[in-house]
Amino acid sequence: MKIFRTIKVALKALGRNKMRTFLTALGIIIGVGAVIAMVSIGQGAKKEIEKRFSEMGTNLLFVRPGSREFRGRHGGGGSYDTLTDADAQAIIEQCNLVQYVSPNVNTRVQVIYSNKNWNTSIYGVGDKYPLIRNWDIDEGAFFTEAQVKTGQKVCVLGSEVNNNLFEGMSPIGQVIRIKKIPFRVIGTMKTKGEAMWFSQDDVIFIPYTTAQTRLVGINYVQSIDVSAVEGSDTAEAQEQIEELLRIRHKIAPGADDDFNVRDMADIQEGAQESTQILTILLGGIASISLLVGGIGIMNIMLVSVTERIREIGVRMSVGARENDILLQFLIEAIVLSLMGGIIGILLGVGSSKLISQFAGMETSVSLGSILLAFLFAGSVGVFFGFYPARKASKLNPIDALRYE
Amino acid sequence: MSENNTIIKLENITKTYDMGETKLEALKGITYTIKRGEMMAIMGPSGSGKSTLMNIIGCLDKPTKGTYYLEDEKVSTMDKNRLAGIRNRRIGFVFQNFNLLARTSSLENVELPLIYSNVPAKEAREKARQAIKQVGLEGWEEHKTNQLSGGEKQRVAIARALVNSPSLILADEPTGNLDTKTGMDIMEVFKSLHEESGITIILVTHDPEISDYAENIIHIRDGLIEKEDRR
Ligand SMILES: Nc1ncnc2c1ncn2[C@@H]1O[C@H](COP(=O)(O)OP(=O)(O)OP(=O)(O)O)[C@@H](O)[C@H]1O
Ligand SMILES: [Mg+2]
Questions:
Q1: Which residues on A lie below 8 Å from B100 (Cβ)?
Q2: What is the pTM for the complete model shown?
Q3: What's the A323 CA to ligand 2 centre distance in angstroms?
Q4: 3-class secondary structure for chain A?
Q5: Which listed CATH number (3.40.50.720, 3.10.580.10, 3.30.1330.120, 3.40.50.300) goes with B38-59+81-230?
Q6: What ipTM did this prediction achieve?
Q7: What is the pLDDT of residues A2-41, one digit of tens each?
Q8: Which sequence spans correspond to the domains of chain A?
C-alpha cells in the first residue's frame, strides 16, 4: 500500500518535469540502442562467416606446401613445389579415412567469349571438387576423371562468369578462350553467393592437369583439398595424411614438415580473428555512445539537483521520512532507466533489422549486448538519480530547503 | 510534567552555527512557555535569531543545547523519523517564500502532508478541498503553482499547513513577500483560523500592524528574549 503510494508520487514527479524526464531517458535510449545495433553488426559478420564455413562442410581438410609455422599461406622460400599429383593419389589410396581428394592449381587470367572480356579466377581442380565443396551443378555436367587424366580443354563456369559472358544464353557447348586457348563449356555451377569480401561465383573450373600444362606451366600442385569420410574424426584423417606425406617426402623424425594440413576449425579461427576485431571496434564505438549517454544522464540529473533537493526539503518539512524520499527517488530512477532501456532496446533491435534489410549486412542481436547496455545505462541512471537524493535525505529539512 | 494548557516549553535553548574558524551563537538560551490556543508574534531586528528559533520549534532544525517539549513530549532528543511524524501531524509551517512544489496543482500541494500520513486517496482529496475552501481559494484547486499570485501561493501554503489538523501553525514572515493589502488579507485568514478552531499560531514579523493581530508578542535581540508584551 505504502509502496504503491510512493510509486504514484514518483510517477507524478517524473510527469511534473517532462523535459528532464525525456532528456534523461534519451541518454539511456541512445546509449543502449547504439550498443545493441553496433554489436549486432559485429556479431552478424561472425555468424555469416560461421555459416559460410558450415556450408562448406566440416569434414574438409586442406593440404598446403610449406611448414605450419608459415600458416601455409605462401610457405617459406623454395617450399612451394613440394606437393604433387602423386601425393594426392597416395592420399586417396592409402588413407582409409579420406573420401575424396582434389588437387588444385589456381590462377587468374583474362577470358574472352566473342567480343566480351572478363578477368576471373581459374580453379584447376579434380573431378571430385563439387563433392568436396558441396557445390551443385546447375546445367550440364562437371568434368570426369577421364577428362582430368587426359587434360581436356573443358571448363565449368561459375554463375557470375556465366552471366557476364553469356547474359542468359545457354553456354553449354560454346567455346571460350582462356589465355587465348579455346575451352569448351560443359557445365555451369549453382550460385554460391558472397563470402564476405569476394564473390565465390566469379570463377571458372578446369581440370587441374590442364591448368598445370596449359595455363601455369608447373608440374606440382598448389594445394590439395581433402574430404574425410562422413562421420569420421577429421583429426584422425589429418594424422593419416601427415604420416603418409612425411614418409613420401622423406622427412626425418623431429624435422619440420614441408607441408601442412589444416582443418576448417583452423581456418575458421583465422577468419574469426578478423570478425572479432570488427566486433571490438564496433563495440568500442558503441561504448563511446554509451558513455556519452551516461554523461548526458549525469548532467541532467546534476543540473536539476538543486531543484530536487529543495523538493526533498519541502517534502520533509511536511513529514516525509528519509525512507519515503529514498524510495521515491529510487523508483523514479528505476522507472526512468527501465523506460529508456526498453525503448533503447527496441530502437537498437529495430535499427539492426533495418541495417540488415537495407545495407544487406547480416546482423545478430546478442543477449549479452542487451544486458550490458541495459545494466550500464541503468546503473548510471539509478546512481545519479539516487545518490544526490540519498545525500539530501540525510540533511535537516531546513538545510535541504535552503540548498543552493 | 506541566499543566495541560501548555503547548510548548523551551528550556535554555541554544543554537550555535559552526562555520569552521568562527562559531556563531544565533540563540543564546531561550526559556519560554507558550500556551495552547495562543496567537503569538515574535519580533526583533534582522539576524536576531527569529527564524532560527522558529525552525527549532517547527522541528526543521535541532537545537545545539536545551530541551524542547511539544505537548509534553520531549522533542529535542527524538530521532529523525519521529520528528518527521511530528512535523507531519502536529505542525503546519508557512514559509516566507512559500516552498510549494513547482508545476504542481494547488490541490496536490495541499494533499502532500496527507500522503505522508497514509490518509486514503479519496479522503485526502476531500480534506484538501476543504482546506482550500477554508483559505478562500475555492475554484483554484487545479491551478499550478506558477499560475498563482503571491497571495494565492501563500493561501495554498496555509491550506497545506492546516490540512492535517495540526495543533500548531508556525509562520515565518508569511507576509514578507507580499504587498500590504495582500498581507492583511493573509492575516485575516490566520485570524479566522485562530478564532474558529482555536489553533495555536506563532508568527514572525517585522511589521507592527501584523503583530497587532497577536495576543502576545515576544521581542528577541541577539539570540535572547528581550521582553514580552502581553495584551
Ligand atoms: N545555516 C546557517 N549557518 C550559519 N549561520 C546562520 C545560519 N542560519 C542563520 N545563521 C545566522 O544566525 C543568525 C540568526 O539568523 P536568523 O535567520 O535566525 O535571523 P532572523 O532573526 O530570522 O533575521 P531576519 O529578520 O533577517 O530573517 C544570523 O546572524 C545568521 O547569519
Ligand atoms: Mg528570518
A1: 314
A2: 0.73
A3: 30
A4: CHHHHHHHHHHHHHHHCHHHHHHHHHHHHHHHHHHHHHHHHHHHHHHHHHHHHHHHCCCEEEEEECCHHHCCCCCCCCCCCCCCHHHHHHHHHHCCCEEEEEEEEEEEEEEEECCEEEEEEEEEECCCHHHHHCCCEEEECCCCHHHHHCCCCEEEECHHHHHHHHCCCCCCCCEEEECCEEEEEEEEECCCCEECCEECCCEEEEEHHHHHHHHHCCCCCCEEEEEECCCCCHHHHHHHHHHHHHHHCCCCCCCCCCEEEEEHHHHHHHHHHHHHHHHHHHHHHHHHHHHHHHHHHHHHHHHCHHHHHHHHHHHHHCCCCHHHHHHHHHHHHHHHHHHHHHHHHHHHHHHHHHHHHHCCCCCCCCHHHHHHHHHHHHHHHHHHHHHHHHHHHCCCHHHHHCCC
A5: 3.40.50.300
A6: 0.95
A7: 788 888 888 988 888 888 888 888 888 888 888 888 888 8
A8: 2-52+276-401, 83-248
